[in-house]
Specification:
Layout (H helix, E strand, L loop, with lengths): L2 E6 L3 E7 L6 E8 L9 H11 L3 E6 L9 H17 L3 E5 L3 H11 L5 H28 L2
Parallel strand pairs: 1-4, 4-5
Antiparallel strand pairs: 1-2, 2-3
């Protein structure tokens, strides 16, 4: 049961994949996109899907701190619909509030990574955190 995790932005999509048992998430890459031009990186995502052969996709929803949904949540849902239609994979969504902040803090505190280098990996790490949070939550539900 391998899953892909996606952190969808307007310029990049961070991609992570789980191990085959669905226990851990690892960052894969960052796909460059241009939402304004209608370039959603689906060709590259197709290559990753062929390589990783996931059974589903998890997409983070960047809700507001008061749990309301803004325009980025709608864009993430639209991206999920595109993925579902194009690849025939089930798509699930998870609240991703603060994952990018957590990822950046981790890179600063633990890895002492410069701002320029952080920018190159932050979305991949955020995707990893989104997927790991999902895996952890699902595991707790199935172990009850």
């Amino acid at each position: 049961m391998r899953l892909l995790g996606l952190d969808v932005g307007s310029r990049t999509v961070g991609v992570a994949a789980s191990d085959l048992l669905g226990w851990t998430a690892q960052g894969v890459e960052i796909i460059r996109i241009n939402e304004d031009d209608g370039d959603f990186g689906l060709d590259r995502l197709s290559e990753i899907i062929k390589d990783k052969q996931p059974t589903g996709v998890v997409i983070g929803l960047p809700k507001n701190m008061n749990n309301t949904e803004g325009p980025r949540v709608e864009k993430s849902r639209e991206y999920g619909n595109m993925v579902e239609e194009k690849f025939g994979l089930p798509v699930d969504f998870i609240d991703e509030r603060l994952t990018t902040v957590q990822a950046e803090r981790m890179l600063i505190d633990e890895a002492n990574v410069s701002r320029k280098k952080r920018k190159k990996v932050i979305d991949k790490i955020a995707a990893e955190m989104i997927l790991q949070n999902y895996l952890d939550a699902k595991g707790k539900l199935t172990r009850k």
